């Protein structure tokens, strides 16, 4: 399938607009009808471009046919500026599979490999993707933390600004994910005093002016949902995200894509736990899943408005 058959677009134009307008396009992860419904409801209400992200494990969980069925049922129009993105593809085969399914953007994450091997694999993916007019994101530097079976690392390494120009020229990728202190999962910082490495971001932006940069592991971990989960039987002690002020600062640079997953997971879980704890005799999934959708929609609306700055940017 061609992604245009689904009304999808690639990320090239939305990133150009984001850099010029000093805002970031939200990339929200989805893995079922409820998460997709919440994301689309929020972005359509906010008139924001959006990147629908699905990891390899999410595709496996939903099944390719079900995923495409959800996208078809969403009735997406090109003027809505919606992209379907493979998040953290770890092989050429994974990226080819996503492109052939109808994804309009793919990420090849070879950041765990030595520099030259990362370049070689990223370049190969870019050549295949560009023949199909699909955007390509690669990663330089490593984020710590665990998001799912495809996204986990026990160590981190900051992106070296001295490497970025060579990497982009040799690979031909369309955007670059960098490591400046974010991490995957719900435990991103040990204290509120920790700051992103804006000095590294500044050096990279100077080396790559007007080139799209991406921030992974950038959930803010809203504390109201952490508290709700813990009050209703959960155990998420010490969960702490990236400070929203720092994320807003990053969005005003050429960080033009900010990835969010954990925030939606927390909102979903809080809605389910609170509903079932408050109404222990309730066994209607539409009730507790409806609460989950509302929470996730609220998260997306809030972050579009107060972090990304992408409201009314279509």
What class do helices, strands and sheet pairing give?
A: alpha/beta
Q: What level of helicity do the residues show?
A: 40-55%
Task: Please count the helical segments.
Answer: 12
**What amount of the residues lies in strands?**
15-25%
H-E string: HEHEHHEHEHEEEHEHEHHEHH
Largest beta sheet: strand ordering: 1-2-3-4-5-8-9-10
Number of strand segments: 10
Whole-number radius of gyration? 18 Å
Query: Span from first to last CA?
Result: 25 Å
Average pLDDT, to the nearest integer? Answer: 93
- Overall 3D form: globular
Low-confidence stretches: 151-155
Description:
By secondary structure, the protein is α/β, with parallel strands linked by helices. It is 46% helix and 16% strand. The protein has helices spanning 12-21, 33-46, 56-62, 64-73, 92-101, 115-130, 164-171, 198-207, 223-231, 244-251, 262-278, 285-308; strands at 25-29, 50-55, 82-89, 105-108, 135-140, 145-148, 151-153, 175-178, 213-215, 255-260. The strands form two sheets. It has an eight-stranded parallel beta barrel, surrounded by nine helices. Strands 6-7 form a two-stranded antiparallel ribbon. Strand 8, helix 8 (198-207) and strand 9 form a beta-alpha-beta unit. The longest helix is centred in the last third of the chain and has 24 residues, at 285-308. It is globular.
């Amino acid at each position: 399938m061609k992604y245009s058959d689904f009304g999808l677009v690639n990320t090239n134009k939305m990133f150009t607009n984001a850099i010029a307008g000093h805002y970031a396009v939200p990339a929200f992860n989805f893995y079922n009808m409820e998460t997709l419904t919440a994301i689309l409801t929020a972005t359509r209400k906010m008139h924001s471009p959006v990147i629908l992200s699905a990891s390899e494990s999410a595709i496996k969980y939903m099944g390719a046919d079900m995923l495409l069925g959800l996208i078809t049922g969403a009735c997406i129009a090109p003027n809505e500026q919606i992209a379907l993105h493979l998040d953290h593809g770890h092989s050429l085969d994974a990226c080819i599979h996503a492109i052939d399914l109808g994804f309009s953007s793919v990420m090849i994450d070879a950041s765990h490999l030595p520099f030259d091997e990362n370049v070689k694999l990223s370049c190969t993916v870019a050549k295949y993707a560009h023949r199909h007019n699909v955007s390509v994101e690669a990663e330089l530097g490593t984020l710590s933390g665990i998001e799912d079976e495809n996204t986990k690392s026990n160590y981190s390494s900051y992106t070296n600004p001295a490497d970025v120009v060579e990497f982009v020229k040799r690979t031909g990728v369309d955007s670059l994910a960098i490591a400046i202190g974010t991490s995957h999962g719900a435990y991103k910082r040990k204290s509120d005093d920790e700051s992103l490495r804006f000095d590294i971001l500044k050096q990279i932006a100077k080396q790559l002016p007007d080139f799209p940069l991406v921030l992974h592991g950038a959930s803010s971990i809203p504390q109201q949902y952490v508290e709700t989960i813990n009050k209703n039987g959960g155990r998420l002690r010490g969960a702490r995200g990236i400070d929203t002020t720092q994320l807003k600062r990053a969005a005003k640079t050429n960080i033009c894509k900010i990835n969010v997953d954990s925030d939606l997971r927390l909102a979903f879980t809080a809605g389910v736990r609170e509903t079932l704890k408050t109404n222990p005799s309730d066994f209607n999934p539409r009730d507790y899943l409806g609460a989950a959708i509302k929470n996730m929609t609220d998260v997306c609306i809030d972050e579009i408005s107060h972090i990304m700055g992408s409201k009314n940017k279509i």
